[in-house]
């Protein structure tokens, strides 16, 4: 009976929260929490809260994930344990603690395999693929995302399919296969837009911006980044805001428009600092440092050129 109740909660959650992301989603979930008893429904809700925290405050996501894990273990609910472990992996990945994330994903995968939860298996495959991508293991990332894509297709899970396509596009971009990257990213964007998933639409656009930036198509890259940033802002995705702000800064840096580059790179710093995302914060500061350095070098070159003309 409790599993029927959990299924009902998942269905109701998709109806009530299906078009909410970021802080609005988190606020709705937190509002429901005090009403729940210590049962599988509460464990599921805590896991959803943990996942919602990923792009806002991953430290709090870890706290909620641990609460869900403790409750699921007390209830001897294996699927709930796996779900909580996956959520913990997602939040540790956001904090760039990759060894911890890998450990949680491995544990979650083993339980999903044991209980034959295909959607869980596909979800962890996708998350492990993202983790490999972040660690520049592009061959490993592509292999994992392809497996996730096949399972997601069998399950007719549009969101998971789009997510796998996005990171496959990211891998192909890193391999300088730009046409293949855009093929996968355009597929992901169409799926996300058709489903009304603003989070995945923004993610698709952000990666498309990177592909165009790699080809020095700077104006097209900026168009993608600004569209993604607007979606991030609309849904309260702080991590996405930080990432797209610094990527816009990178494009302006490459265009040698250093004041504009610094404007956007500086916007990313407080966001990534609040998230505790040390890797992204390091990227922000690196971009800022390079902007100052390049600006000095350009001004020195101009001064040297002027002095030579005068002499």
Labels describing this entry:
mainly alpha, 0% strand, disordered N terminus
Describe this structure in words.
- There is one protein chain.
- By secondary structure, the protein is mainly alpha-helical.
- 86% of the residues lie in helices and 0% in strands.
- It contains 15 helices and no strands.
- It has helices spanning 2-17, 22-32, 40-53, 58-74, 78-94, 98-115, 118-134, 138-155, 158-174, 178-195, 198-214, 218-235, 238-254, 258-275, 278-310.
- The longest helix is centred in the C-terminal third of the chain and has 33 residues, at 278-310.
- Residues 1-18 and 305-309 have low confidence and may be disordered.
Draw up the topology in text.
Layout: H1 2-17, H2 22-32, H3 40-53, H4 58-74, H5 78-94, H6 98-115, H7 118-134, H8 138-155, H9 158-174, H10 178-195, H11 198-214, H12 218-235, H13 238-254, H14 258-275, H15 278-310
